[in-house]
Write a structure and sequence with these properties.
With about 250 residues, the protein is α/β, with parallel strands linked by helices. It has one domain: 3-Layer(aba) Sandwich (Collagenase (Catalytic Domain)), CATH 3.40.390. Helices cover about 25% and strands about 15% of the residues. The strands form two sheets. It has a six-stranded mixed beta sheet with strand order 1-5-6-4-2-3, covered by helices on one side. A two-stranded antiparallel ribbon has the order 7-8. A hairpin with a 7-residue loop joins strand 5 and strand 6. The longest helix has 15 residues. The protein starts with a helix and ends in a 5-residue tail after the last helix. Monomer.
């Protein structure tokens, strides 16, 4: 009996939040890229409640007590272990906590919509959307969308972007040129050096005119820009940025 109790106490939490094994194919990559590149959304996967308010420049969109209230639509019950594994990963690396909704007014509603998208930060609109539709059921994609909900835009928007990325405008689909606008310094806070491994930095073919042409490449030799589904986790600097944005003490 003692051995059984020891196993339950020590190993069951690990099993409950075990990170899934994912064998991602080229076909999956295309499916994921399409799900993250909605031409009707800002940056392909961002719902802007207020286009003039950027999370990095305002404490207005931070979640009180560093706690994100959420609900998971019953139609996503079959991937709830994946969603909770992504949340647990963020909790282990930062001071952010995720709490299931009871009767709170403002919360993140995680549902099966058309593609992957989220609002940025707490936008005080009641049930704010976080869609995990077809092509979004991968750990790195879920972590990426949760990072938006925490309060982060894409890494290629950073004010200092041009020092680290070459943008190949001729390879970008004409409808997506605006998705590569750099933020002004007053629109974002930069907490860490530019991070090629950030879960918020897309791969090299993002918003490509033909799905194959390179749209952005690193200025640093030897670096490969990987898609978020292949990174899967927060980078060290992602975690640092969250902790600094929310003024975590530990």
């Amino acid at each position: 009996m003692a051995k059984i109790l020891f196993f339950i106490c020590c190993f069951l939490p690990v099993l409950l939040y075990a990170l899934p094994v994912e064998n991602i194919t080229e076909s999956d990559d295309e499916k994921i890229r399409a799900a993250l590149e909605n031409p009707d959304l800002y940056q392909g996967d961002i719902v802007l409640a207020n286009p003039d308010r950027f999370a990095h420049s305002s404490d207005y969109v931070l979640w009180p007590q560093r706690t994100i209230i959420y609900s998971i639509d019953p139609r996503l019950a079959y991937i709830s272990p994946l969603i909770r594994a992504a949340m647990k990963h963020i909790e282990q690396k930062t001071c952010i906590r995720f709490k299931p909704r009871t009767n709170e007014v403002h919360y993140v509603r995680i549902f099966n919509g058309g593609g992957c998208y989220s609002a940025v930060g707490r936008v005080r609109m009641g049930a704010q959307p976080l869609s995990l539709g077809y092509g979004c059921h991968y750990l790195g994609v879920v972590v990426h969308e949760l990072m938006h909900a925490i309060g982060f835009f894409h890494h290629h928007m950073r004010t200092d972007r041009d020092q680290y990325l070459r943008i190949h405008w001729h390879n970008i689909h004409p409808n997506f040129h605006g998705q590569f606008r750099r933020l002004y310094s007053y629109e974002n806070r930069i907490y860490t050096p530019f991070d090629y491994e950030s879960i918020m930095l897309y791969g090299s073919r993002t918003f490509s005119r033909d799905r194959f042409s390179i749209t952005m490449s690193p200025t640093k030799p030897g670096v490969v820009l990987r898609d978020v589904q292949h990174k899967r986790f927060l980078s060290k600097d992602d975690a640092t940025s969250i902790n600094k944005l929310y003024r975590c003490t530990n």
